[in-house]
Amino acid sequence: MRRVNGTALIIAALLATVGALAFPIWSYADRSGTGQANLDAGTVATRWGPLSATDRDFIVKVRLAGLWEIPAGQQAMERAPTRAVREAGDHLVVGHTDLDQRVRSVAARLGVELPSQPNAQQQGWLAQLSAASGKDYERKFANLLRDSHGKVFALIAQVRHTTRNTLVRELATDANQTVLDHITMLENTGDVDFDALANEAAGTATASPTGPPPPDGRAPEGPAPAAGPTGSPEATSRPSAQPTDEPGRTIDTDRPAPTS
Fold first, then answer.
1. Is the peptide bond before 215 cis (omega within 30 degrees of 0)?
2. 168 near 59, Cβ under 8 Å?
3. Could you tell me what percent of the chain has a pLDDT over 70?
4. Cα distance between the two ends of the chain
5. CA 152 to each of CA 29, 140, 179, 259: distance values in angstroms, whole numbers, following the listed order
6. How many Cα atoms sit within 13 Å of 134 on the Cβ side?
7. Which of 95, 142, 189, 243 is the right S-S partner for 178, CB 3.0 to 4.6 Å?
8. Which string of DSSP letters, residue by residue, matches 19-76?
9. How many CB atoms lie within 10 A of CB 183?
10. Half-sphere exposure (CA, 13 Å, Cβ side) for 82?
11. What pTM value is reported for the model?
């Protein structure tokens, strides 16, 4: 009898252990703190699809970008000594005025409250620009704006990739076009410090770099073969990018007016 009871206790203990180990696996998807749980908790339903917390953050950041970049661009048009910087300022004003109209329309339909003033960091950037002059002003303008646009570029890509909301997806497409145009115009000034941008990004990176080994000084054995279609049907569309050998590249930002 004692032997039977001892065996039963061992079996019961084993079953309890297995159950304890398996329970977190079975219930993981429903636990708070997981990515899926956080997504569900921050998402609300709309007629245009689910609206996540990331979607709402993106809408607010598009609005904030215009609130400081429009006055920064206008200031560059009025104060910059060189034509390239004045042209970059012109693109900032035109692009963000258009984008602001679009983001206000999207926010109104989705019920997202928008700020009416730049945030503290953006106000600090504007103060730096106001205090500078001459070539120092142009360098500050190009690098503050280029760094800001480069960082928001990653958020646009994330939102465009993951959003389930039609209006947010359209806004991300428009913002991508605008930001790429502004990045290009700022780089056309010749004042962007690419070493500083790379070093800043490296300082926040945690993963080891990957890719092919560094060149050893020897030329590759012949050029890489061209990638292209074979057979039929014949493709008829045209690439959107301009030839890479053109000086001062620009981005085509022509698009339909926003719908109300």
1. no
2. yes
3. 81
4. 82
5. 30, 18, 8, 24
6. 2
7. 95
8. HHHHHHHHHGGGSTTSHHHHHHHT-B--TTS-B-HHHHHHHHHHHHHHHHHHHHHHHH
9. 20
10. 16
11. 0.78
DSSP letters for 231-242 = SSSPP----SSP
- Mean pLDDT across the stretch 58-66? 97
| Local confidence band at 22 (pLDDT 50, 70, 90 cut-offs) | very low
Report phi then psi at 149, rounded to 5: -65, -40
Q: By the 8 A CB rule, do 174 and 73 touch?
A: no
Report the sign of the C-alpha dihedral through residues 43, 48, 54, 59, in that order. Answer: negative
**pLDDT tens, residue by residue, 134-192:** 999 999 999 999 999 999 999 999 999 999 999 999 999 999 999 999 999 999 999 99
DSSP assignment of the chain: -HHHHHHHHHHHHHHHHHHHHHHHHHHGGGSTTSHHHHHHHT-B--TTS-B-HHHHHHHHHHHHHHHHHHHHHHHHHHH-SSHHHHHHHHHHHHHHHHHHHHHHHHHHHHT----SS--HHHHHHHHHHHH--HHHHHHHHHHHHHHHHHHHHHHHHHHHHH---HHHHHHHHHHHHHHHHHHHHHHHTT---HHHHHHHHHHH--SPP-SSPPP-SPPPSSPPPPP---SSSPP----SSPPTTSSS-------PPPP-
Question: ∠ CA 136-142-146 to the nearest 5 degrees?
Answer: 145
Residue entry with tokens 């997504």? 39
CB 177 within 8 A of CB 157: no
